[in-house]
Write a structure and sequence with these properties.
6-stranded mixed β-sheet, elongated, Creatine Amidinohydrolase, 2 domains, 5-stranded mixed β-sheet, 9 helices, single chain
Length: 391
Amino acid sequence: MPDIRAIQAELRASKLDGWLFYDHHRRDPIANHILEIAKDQMATRRWFYFIPARGEPRKLVHRIEQGMLDSLTGSKQAYSSWEELHKGIRKLLAGSKTIAMQYSPENNVPYIGLVDAGTVEFVRKLKKKVVTSADLVQKFEATWTAEQLESHLEAGRAIDRITRAAFERAAEFVRQAKPITESGLQQWMLGEFRANGIITSDPPIAAVQPNNGNPHYEPKRDGSNPIRAGDLLLLDVWGKLDRPGSVYYDITWVGYLGRRVPDAYARIFRIVREARNRAIEFVKDGVARDRKIHGWEVDRAAREVIRKAGYGKYFVHRTGHSIGQAVHGNGANMDSLETKDDRRVVPNTCFSIEPGIYLPEFGIRSEVDMYVNEREAVVTGAIQDEILTLL
């Protein structure tokens, strides 16, 4: 059961009258996860759950699915017709003025903007001010416990070993003139995941040029490129422990199948490295000075380095994403490109820093994870300073 008292304390601290949860056909995974709604419950009718800043929560459910919210505390009313539904919402929100919902102004943060426009319109017709629940969601969805941080670090140690071993395997096959493909290396890594108790939502990426110029390249069993001498090999690897509540670790490293890295690769890596380090230092300095940091500002710090170097149009994605029990979590993303993520970076959250430059001939990305607490921000794993020479 969700900690209603903790939610109410946060509502009062945020000067909000309540948090209105609403769903239909499980369109809002955030609501279902925070409220711990059982996944096997039938959910074909609209339901509402209102947590006021003070007092007892209130439920509104359809008569043919009256048990939908029985796992939650609070008074219950039921409806059948749309007229009853409208009257029920009015009663549900009585006495409140400013209400948080999974809504994002101008859909700036689409990961939060999950309530349909019509429902927001109706709540506003009731003379209620609807505000975004983005920071509330961070508090109750994106923050980690001490145990989750330890699961991240443990997964990181295993994934770092597997990543190093994957580079070594590719190099050994090349030295022995044995065939190995991007997909073959990927499948070997998945086998190592299983052997080390690591699970993942999607398989890791192994990519040589020009495929590493595609940020979301997916090696296929049939048709992926061979890995050969002289190739630039990018490994993007993410996973978590096979335990309930564990959280992800997510990194990207690059290596060169040769003795000396070509100048073209080294030059682009240096720019990406500087952008990554600039973002890291921006976060560290902000936390140390107790300054509010927003996701878009972190992205801007990294992006400006790449723009000034003349490669702005080749940095085609955000600088980083929230990390949690899903590899893309529900906290602030480091983004001023795809969205202007104005959510604050809050304590006990983790996110990636992963700038990249993606040219038609090849691409380079360097990715680390950062964890922020009340006092400091730290990179949770190793940091790549040069392209690895693998032969």
